[in-house]
Recover the amino acids of this structure.
């Protein structure tokens, strides 16, 4: 018997089910899953977007809003805590004794900061005042990147950070992000924060992005790092086609499983 051809309503139901489990799906991924052409998927997504059933993003769709507004740090820190702990546990395996590392201001990166007592003799550069507070009682060498205080993220950011960042050489930079897409790379809500992230990544041997799957495929306002600047992504789960695109761009993907 010929395979049953999905009706419009059935396709839309399947699309919504797939997005509930994958955060973001590409047009190609949906086309493969539903065994229909990419042109059909594009028409379906546009129709569903106009009816506010989903959010169109470049190359695909998501059920999540585009990240234009950044929550306060406390709210970010309480979201996806179990996932962030698993990502931090994966990240600590990449750090060796006596490494020179950079810690960005993200809430997932902060969970990594709390595990640094598992290593010895680190030099820790950071623009995060919260991470610095957690580390000031440790035996590690601590260097703060100076700059303008950004209350929302409790970080030091902007052009003034260039004076310190330009004189650093970092083995491994652990970065957070608000959004991350193939086309735009890392994105955030603040241009000063974007400036500081880019300064640090230029001075790092290896850039490691810590991002839970809710950030993947979702763009934000200001570009803060080209995709080619990233060496490793640690996340909880990722759409297979999105992963293939990442690996085609030279990014190693590490999954922080259950």
């Amino acid at each position: 018997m010929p395979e049953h051809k999905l009706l419009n309503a059935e396709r839309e139901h399947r699309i919504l089910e797939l997005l509930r489990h994958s955060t973001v799906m590409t047009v190609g991924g949906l086309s493969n899953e539903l065994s229909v052409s990419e042109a059909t998927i594009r028409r379906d997504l546009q129709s569903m977007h106009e009816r506010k059933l989903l959010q169109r993003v470049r190359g695909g769709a998501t059920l999540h809003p585009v990240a234009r507004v950044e929550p306060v740090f406390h709210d970010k820190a309480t979201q996806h805590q179990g996932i962030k702990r698993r990502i931090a546990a994966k990240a600590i395996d990449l750090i060796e004794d006596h490494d020179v590392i950079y810690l960005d201001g993200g809430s997932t990166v902060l969970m990594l900061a709390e595990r640094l007592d598992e290593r010895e003799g680190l030099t820790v550069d950071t623009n995060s005042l919260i991470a610095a507070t957690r580390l000031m009682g440790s035996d590690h060498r601590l260097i703060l990147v100076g700059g303008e205080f950004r209350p929302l993220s409790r970080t030091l950011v902007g052009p003034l950070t260039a004076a310190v960042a330009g004189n650093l050489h970092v083995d491994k930079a652990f970065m957070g992000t608000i959004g991350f897409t193939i086309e735009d790379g890392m994105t955030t809500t603040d241009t000063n924060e974007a400036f500081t992230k880019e300064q640090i990544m230029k001075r790092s041997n290896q850039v490691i992005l810590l991002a839970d799957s809710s950030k993947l495929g979702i763009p934000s306002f200001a570009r803060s790092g080209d995709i080619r600047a990233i060496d490793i992504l640690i996340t909880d789960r990722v759409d297979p086609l999105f992963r293939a695109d990442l690996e085609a761009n030279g990014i190693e993907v590490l999954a922080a499983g259950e």
Q: What stands out?
A: The chain has ten helices and 15 strands.
